[in-house]
Amino acid sequence: MIADIVIISIYGKVWAMIDVVFLPAMLNATLLPQSQVVVFDVLRASSTIVTALSNGAREVRLLPDVDSVLHARTVVPPPVITAGERECVKVPGFDLGNSPAEFETHRIGGASVLLSTTNGTRAVLAAHTAAELFIGSLLNAQATAEALQPQLDHLHTLLLLSGTDGQLAQEDVIGAGAVLWHILGGTYRIDLPYTDAAWMAYHCFAAVRERLGAALRLGAGGVNLIESGFEEDIDLCAKLNSRPLAVCVRKDPLRCMTS
Ligand code: MLT
Question: What is the pTM of this model?
Fold first, then answer.
């Protein structure tokens, strides 16, 4: 199914819509050049990217597979850190896995991080033709909402959820809902044309915002992390607005930077 967004006209004014796209496969690619897109992989890729940049990484380059990371290591100016996971576990031979706890300033400060993850990196790649592209998480929900505000009337705003292996991930719905919560709280723009998917994400976040860590433990992504020995990462990824920075994605090469 393709998520369908149209520009609607109310009393002669043309407004762009605000939508949550539950999976990369549901993205309507023809809309991307007229859209600002935020990619969420709350457990854990987007939380890790935000943490790395907050702790002083020069950039986080997003690469589709292990071979691309190994090649980039030979051409990107040092210092360079290789990072990523397969089935939650660090890729053999890489410097770091995909746990936000690993991305400490003394390890990654000033470095280019070369990152490949199973779902999150691929979702960003799927949206790379967007007019504006951001990385969202609970850690930077308010900063992301503020970065989106200038274009809310001029571009579609698509909150794209990475999911896990083609399945909707509830932690990503909660992350998108957090950004919507801050858009509404920051603008009082109830008049904006939110889709029902956007309202659902908003209410999902509203229902659990006082117990985010507990909520994140309940979904399949949380259970996977607990079973893989990474339960502490759930609490790190649940710290609402603890990393107040907007993260944008630049192209050629695809890289995340602070805006
Ligand atoms: C992913 O990108 O698939 C996830 O971030 C996996 C993980 O939590 O390591």
Answer: 0.93
